[in-house]
Design goal:
This is DNA polymerase V subunit UmuC. Belongs to the DNA polymerase type-Y family. The structure is a single chain. By secondary structure, the protein is α+β, with helices and mostly antiparallel strands. The protein folds into three domains: about 160 residues, Alpha-Beta Plaits, CATH 3.30.70; about 60 residues, Orthogonal Bundle (DNA polymerase, domain 1); about 150 residues, DNA polymerase, Y-family, little finger domain (Dna Ligase, domain 1, 2-Layer Sandwich), CATH 3.30.1490. Helices cover about 35% and strands about 20% of the residues. It is built from 14 helices and 13 strands. A hairpin with a 2-residue loop joins strand 5 and strand 6. Helix 4 packs antiparallel against helix 5, helix 10 packs antiparallel against helix 11 and helix 12 runs antiparallel to helix 13. The longest helix has 21 residues. It is globular.
Length: about 425
Amino acid sequence: MRNIALIDVNNFYVSCERIFNPKLEGKPVIVLSNNDGCAVARSNEAKALGVKMGQPWFQFKDLAQKHRIIAYSSNYTLYDDMSKRVMNILSTFSPNQEVYSIDECFLDLTGFGNLLESGQNMRETIKKFLGLPVCVGIGATKTLSKLANYIAKKYPKLDGVCNLNDMTPFQQDIWFKRIKVGEIWGVGRRLAPKLNQYGIETVYDLKQASSTTMRNKFSVVMEKIIRELNGISCIDLEEVTPPKKEIVCSRSFGIKITSLTDLEEAVSLYISRASEKLRRQHSYTGSISVFINTSRFSKPKDNYFNVIRIPLPTQSASTIVLTKAAIWGLRKIYRHGYKYQKAGVILSNLVDTEIRQTDLFGLSPISNRYQLMKVVDNINDRMGKGSIWLASQGIKQSWSMRRENVSQNYTTDWDELLCIQ
């Protein structure tokens, strides 16, 4: 039997904030999304007060004031760095690791000895070196390990580790009868109501369902979920993350903007970030799409959305080349007189660097810029993001997303290191 572990950091964004501000322990804390829009992370205390995931900030401002809920703006630089530290530590526990998200990863522990002891060792190590609380779920498949992790979080008596493989099928079913079907990985809130219509309310109900029948009613994905619930592995561990087929970078602005200059700065910044991701996966892009739009709540006469796709004459990964193409496209779709809320770029037709098609003579100046971009990337990695950037990205960026209560970059900026009084 395989032993797949899912390790998940509890309330990750909130936990990262608490590491560097111990006064937050035991208090209701939330972290807000871009532009301080809605709750994307909640402490257990905030959950107990009724704050829902994804709930807009303006809806519970009064509740926050009444119960002294502490709200932080998202600090993605801090969270990304802490995530890398967590994953580096977990990689020492197994040679087979799949980083699933910023706060979750799968480990293959097949052949290991005492799995409960291994799980507790992971928790203690991460708590000791990083101060972050984690839970560990272990099962015969990835779907079962996700459920085990859910059980470990919900039932404190398990001390943060749940191993379904140590249970008999009867004991597993007792747990599964307690868990709503919407908690299953791959089901969620969208499919749960449809399953309820067929009398499937719990994990146990779905486990007992016919995989062939449910495939015909839903899809092959539902069939795989049922098989995984029954201990048949259908979803492999991805130890190497496959390259993305498309790269999107977009943001809502902190304020509505009207000028073409501000839009050009924003699009230049988004192209820079997208091209960094492009080079990180060793790819080139063959086309760029640029889109802009006003608020969806605007009146019809004030509403505007447009997108343009720009095929490139030669596939490229150069920020300079891609920025020129994107700004050219932006100027084609820009319309004066609208208040723009959002812009974004999409890199598509991606190919690996090894199979990139050059021009007729293979001497395009575009190809010579890859080394330049690597130098820029290396400097930004060593000296900090944004050490070198294109002037077209602007200096002040008054349109940048609103973050009124963002914490310091404690781990990535010398000027923002934690000072102990």
